[in-house]
């Protein structure tokens, strides 16, 4: 069913359902190889045009946005640590290694593997990338992930700067370097102590889970066309319509990984919970908003139309004159 909007000129703006790419299952691997070969041929034949297209592509700028927001987050982490150190020095009655009570860390065993959340996240990101790389949605998912994760880092920067929390495990920071240098060290992997308002590992984990949940039936590895005719997997605007065994497995894996994050005691239970809620809501907000971005003309929608250029899951806008005399 088309969605429509009546404007002041008695014209109906109709959202035409998107043209979903043909579901080809494992044949998508061959299609991906053909696309890569075609891209190299285009680069050789038209190098300047190809490079300009890449430099003005949403994929490149979403990646740059992610890197920039990651550094901004590192800068705010450095500011937070520096302020917290000075605050503790003025409050000698507060122990330098005190922690807040947390029901998750009290009930669950402690896993003393400092970088386990990073290891888990790298594994999840790798599997997610490989799963969707051989589908028509590979570029779309990658740039949307970079954009959403970058937005998470911006939101997180403001939150950790506003409220300072002690580390769940003993962690002391004595930084005597300039803030910019310390921020660069954090950006390159040095752990800070007080960036605990919500967990970026959890946000990325839940983004991956949501991408699986939202796109897994748009680009299935096995094509059951007869099944889709009986029970459609997505509606005409791309939203999933059914809960499958694969989605159940994804939910279980995500829940287990979240518990592992709590057991590592690098974050409190509540900031893992908050990260999960924010990432899911941000994912749903973005994927709902882009379905209607062609219905309004403003600078943000203009940006999204450039950013989402070529995405097959965006409804087109059609116009139809309305005659009130009939």
TrEMBL record:
Organism: Entamoeba histolytica
Record's bilayer topology term: Multi-pass membrane protein
Gene Ontology terms: biological process: ceramide biosynthetic process
Keyword Cell wall biogenesis/degradation in record: no
Transmembrane feature ranges: 51-76, 116-134, 196-216, 243-263, 270-290
Record PANTHER family: SPHINGOMYELIN SYNTHASE-RELATED PROTEIN 1, SPHINGOMYELIN SYNTHETASE
Predominant cellular place of this UniProt entry's protein: membrane
Pfam families assigned to the protein according to its UniProt record, in alphabetical order: PAP2_C
Family: Belongs to the sphingomyelin synthase family.
GO MF term set: ceramide cholinephosphotransferase activity; sphingomyelin synthase activity
Superkingdom of origin organism: Eukaryota
Keywords, comma-separated and alphabetical: Lipid metabolism, Membrane, Sphingolipid metabolism, Transferase, Transmembrane, Transmembrane helix
Compartment(s): Membrane
A GO CC annotation given for this chain: endoplasmic reticulum membrane
Entry annotated with the keyword Lipid metabolism: yes
Domain Sphingomyelin synthase-like: from-to ranges: 192-287
Protein name (Swiss-Prot/TrEMBL): Sphingomyelin synthase-like domain-containing protein
Taxon lineage: Eukaryota, Amoebozoa, Evosea, Archamoebae, Mastigamoebida
């Amino acid at each position: 069913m088309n969605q429509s909007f009546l404007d002041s000129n008695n014209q109906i703006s109709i959202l035409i359902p998107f043209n979903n790419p043909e579901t080809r299952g494992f044949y998508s691997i061959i299609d991906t190889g053909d696309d890569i070969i075609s891209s190299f041929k285009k680069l050789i034949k038209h190098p300047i045009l190809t490079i300009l297209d890449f430099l003005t592509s949403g994929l490149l700028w979403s990646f740059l946005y992610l890197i920039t927001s990651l550094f901004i987050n590192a800068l705010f982490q450095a500011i937070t640590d520096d302020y917290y150190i000075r605050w503790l020095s003025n409050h000698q009655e507060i122990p330098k290694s005190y922690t807040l009570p947390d029901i998750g860390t009290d009930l669950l065993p402690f896993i003393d593997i400092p970088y386990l959340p990073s290891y888990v996240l790298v594994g999840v990101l790798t599997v997610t990338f490989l799963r969707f790389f051989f589908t028509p949605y590979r570029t779309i998912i990658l740039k949307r992930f970079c954009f959403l994760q970058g937005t998470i880092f911006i939101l997180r920067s403001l939150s950790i700067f506003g409220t300072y929390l002690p580390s769940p495990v003993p962690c002391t920071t004595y930084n005597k370097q300039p803030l910019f240098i310390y921020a660069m060290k954090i950006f390159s992997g040095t752990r800070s102590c007080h960036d605990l308002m919500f967990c970026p590992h959890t946000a990325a984990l839940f983004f991956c889970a949501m991408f699986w949940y939202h796109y897994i039936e748009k680009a299935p590895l096995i094509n059951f066309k007869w099944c889709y005719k009986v029970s459609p997997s997505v509606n005409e605007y791309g939203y999933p319509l059914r809960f499958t065994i694969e989605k159940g497995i994804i939910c279980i894996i995500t829940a287990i990984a979240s518990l592992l994050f709590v057991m590592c005691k690098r974050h409190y239970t509540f900031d893992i919970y908050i990260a999960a809620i924010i990432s899911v809501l941000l994912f749903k907000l973005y994927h709902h908003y882009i379905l209607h971005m062609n219905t309004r003309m403003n600078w943000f929608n203009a940006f999204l139309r450039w950013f989402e250029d070529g995405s097959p899951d965006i409804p087109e806008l059609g116009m139809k004159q309305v005659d009130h005399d009939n």
